[in-house]
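Q: Given only this backbone (202 positions), what sequence would you predict?
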């Protein structure tokens, strides 16, 4: 009974917060509602026994992505009233897309429930003597360790390529010379001028 009440409470909070993300006029409040959606989804993951996904959702999305959105919205001077001028005109198209997504989810859910192996899929995904994180780590670093290393190598190559493209030398671009900045003397950058009274520029 307690699990059912918690599920419906978290689900209602997530749906309401998701609607407020779109309907909120203040962009800062919209980001705060988005953070509330992430927390509600994390609670649902915990109810499903996927505590690792809940932890990743809070650490990555709430701790990094949502906070980044919040800082960008607060620091940039964006005219959100102008961005929302076509909201009413595009509302029918958005409604059709939402109905299509809801239909896809409903069809997928009905197909999964009516499948022959639906009862076996409802069982616990991990053994009773092993946590969800331990089971995921055993599968990831044992069975799929090669693909895991390949993914890390791809990310490493992408990071090196980004650094190389950023640090390339361009003609006319002013760059910082750390050696010249540290070794400069006071006489090279400061000039003391003795201006007599009445001869200064007004």
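A: Predicted residues:
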């Amino acid at each position: 009974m307690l699990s059912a009440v918690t599920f419906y409470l978290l689900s209602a909070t997530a749906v309401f917060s998701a609607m407020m993300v779109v309907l909120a006029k203040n962009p800062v409040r919209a980001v705060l509602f988005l953070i509330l959606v992430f927390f509600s989804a994390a609670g649902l993951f915990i109810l499903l026994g996927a505590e690792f996904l809940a932890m990743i959702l809070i650490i990555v999305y709430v701790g990094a992505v949502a906070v980044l959105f919040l800082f960008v919205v607060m620091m940039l001077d964006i005219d959100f009233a102008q961005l929302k001028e076509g909201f009413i005109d595009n509302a029918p198209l958005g409604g059709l897309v939402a109905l299509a997504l809801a239909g896809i989810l409903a069809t997928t859910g009905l197909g999964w429930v009516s499948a022959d192996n639906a009862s076996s899929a409802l069982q616990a995904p991990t053994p009773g003597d092993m946590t969800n994180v331990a089971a995921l780590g055993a599968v990831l670093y044992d069975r799929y360790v090669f693909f895991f290393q390949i993914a890390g190598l791809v990310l490493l190559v992408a990071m090196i390529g980004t650094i190389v493209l950023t640090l390339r030398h361009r003609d006319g671009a002013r760059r910082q010379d750390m050696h010249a900045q540290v070794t400069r003397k006071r006489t090279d950058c400061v000039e003391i001028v003795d201006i007599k009274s009445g001869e200064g520029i007004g």
